[in-house]
Amino acid sequence: MRSSLIVRAATRVLVGLLLVFSLWMLLRGHNEPGGGFIGGLIGATGFILYAIAHGCSAARLALRLEPQTIAMVGLGVALAAGIFSTFFGDALFTGQWLFLGAEEGEKGLPLSNILIFDIGVYLVVLGSVLTLVLALEEEV
Amino acid sequence: MAASDANTRFLGGPAGWISVLVPLALFLWFAQHIPAVAGGEVLKWSWDWIPSLGVEIGILLDGLSLTFALLISGIGVMVTLYSTSYLGGHDHYARFVTYLLAFMTGMLGLVLSDNLLSLFVFWEVTTISSYLLIGFNADEAKSRRNALQALLVTGTGGLAFLAGIVLIATATGTFNISEIEGSLADHALYQPIFWLVVAGAFTKSAQVPFHFWLPNAMAAPTPVSAYLHSATMVKGGVYLLARMNPSLGGTDLWFWVLVIFGGVTAVFASILAIKQTDIKQVLAYTTLMALGTLVMFIGVGTEAAILGAMTFLLVHSFYKASLFLMIGVVDHGTGTREATVLRGLFRKMPITGLAAMLAALSMAGIPPLFGFIGKEFLYKGALDGPAMLWVTGCAFAASALMFCAAGIVAWRPFTGTLAETPVAPHEGGVAMLTGPVLLAGLGVVLGLMPDYAEALVRPGVAAVLGRPAEVDLYLFKEVNTAFILSLMTFAVGWGLYLIHGRLRDYLAGFKSRFDPGWDRLMDLVAAGCAGLTGAIQTGQLRRYIFVTFATLTAVVLVAVIRAGLAPDFTIEEDLRAKHWSVLIFITAGGLITAFTNSRMTAVAALGTVGVGVALVFIMFGAPDVAITQLLVEVLQVVLVAVAMLKLPTLNKEYVSTIRGWDLTLALTLGALTTITLLAVMATPFDMRLTEFFESTSVPIAHGRNIVNVILVDFRALDTFGEVAVVAIAALGAFALLRGTKKGAS
Predict the structure, then answer these.
(1) ipTM, 2 decimals?
(2) In chain B, what are the helix, strand and coil shares in percent, each to the nearest 5?
(3) Hey, are the CB atoms on B646 and A139 less than 8 Å from each other?
């Protein structure tokens, strides 16, 4: 079943936008509405759209990794971010912050294992949803 | 059995010699503690295992546990040595040895544990390894069935015992046997504790009416029968009773239950022993007799009775292990175990014959063997104790029948003229003969020099009684009632032996009811399970969902009624146009879902309900939740729509028959949820958490989006758990989908 030209043409633009949007949602999540969960869902939507337009095998190629691998990597990243805290003598999943270039009155660039944890969540959601949807679509 | 004589590797290779050296080392280690324990010391070592639950691994070495430990490791050496030849070269020899060593570990742990919980763990280890060993010839349906029977009977008893342990700990406040002070006889929980512990002991030690699994367990290879189902494991129950005697013994209940069940088992089993033609089965039933006797005398509980029991314990372990191993040699050498076939083997198998006869003399209780001392002291204990007639009668009947059984097992096959056997009779090798000869020899040595046995028996009796005891074992001192009883035993036993052929024919008329009864019970359980599964697991998804929500409705209904919630519809805020529009939006979606006859319409309408809920979130200032809700709702509609392509069209007639039920259920649950929510709204909201998050989100967690900060920082562990669930659910669904795909193609 080939999808319409309109869908395929629109997909070309939309997929890129959706993926960038999903990353933006992920990164701004700590201060504005967003976060890993929402970002992952949006990212998954992008690939699903791609799969609908060009077929599941094309979507798998575009992903490069198996979606279930992505989910497991995400779980590993989230766990690693949690365990990271224990190296500083804190409890599991305690936030560790580093403010790059911080000066008097200037916060600098905040980096933290919290962000890494959120990236893990993003990958888990993205991978899990794609695992399900792609398997279902291929099944049907 | 694929025992191979061509096996030339020393002791069957590494698996073989390791299996011999380990118990040997253990035996020597235990043996070096004999002097200390014989001197009345109780040795204790302990390590914390689960300190929060009061579970520790403790070794308690007193007379009782040392006796058992020496038997387990000592006979273990004989049996593993024997196995190197009996099963060496078998395809699964290494597996066999592993099971056997696992069992040995469990059994040693069982008798050495001071902590009741670790005792229970080891108790179960012996049950499971016994299961594996009985079912070792897993190709045969009979082996598997008998193994499962043993597992279920002893396992069920083990669960009862666990419950008993918990009650003991409740009653005494400790799991450590050595810390239980005094008797529990006056405690309110005594009765349940007693019955639960006894259930564990009786199933393990195969007392009537749980005896039937033990003869069936003889499906195991001979070394296993000799080791587990004669010398060690089945004595686990006896050990437990002996160990608990100071805490649970001394009551009327204890006395009568143990004495009656033990006595019945002893006599019943020795009669059945005469009925058997397979000499391994004869021995299996005489083992039951020994277990019954031990239980009975522990029940009597006087010093003389315990002395008799502890002596008989040693006696029995030596001759019974020896005889079992001997049977393996005969089976191996002639190809049969039929008592009616085997005759005149002595010339062909002189060493086996000698060992068998020495062991049988001990079994028959003939002086000057150790068995005679054992029997004498049993009689002394019986004559001194309460319920003298019953106990003495049982002991006498069992001993006389035992004399007869000893003749059947070890006299008749070796004497007379040589008979035809499937294989030309030949003697076994050194590895197979060492065990039976040494163990039979022990019966002679300890008979002539009983002082050596005292070193173990004295502390053993003291441990069972819970106080020091005077022990003096001797072969002969004077002509007394016990001695005369012994002589009568010989006379009656000899008489029974002469007519045992006719006895056997007569007894063959009685059919066993226990074993077929077990099969019927198992069939009933299977039928019950099949019926229950059929009723619950219909395979219809909508039935499952209906049952799930019906249960939820029932639970909520009960909760609402018990809390006396009354709906309170007063709404303080004014409903504005946007509220009404969302309300209509959601309601319309719900109504369309409920009344459409098209699946696709239903899914889409359900999606609009979800979008409406997202709008509600936005109105109340939760954009994160709203976005998530919206995305999930869209994905769900897409997913279901994709799946729907595969589904058959709705059967409208069927739908119309069930719609009434579904509607009732949905409306009830909806109404209940509304009532609950209104009640929740009516109570003042606890703002502490909200305030905490509002005040700390930026200073501590450096984030202004409180929802996200909670998710990834304050409650990061919860989130991690949730994403793990998401990932695993996806993997599960993936496996299911792929599985059906493979199955279809």
Answers:
(1) 0.91
(2) 75, 5, 25
(3) yes
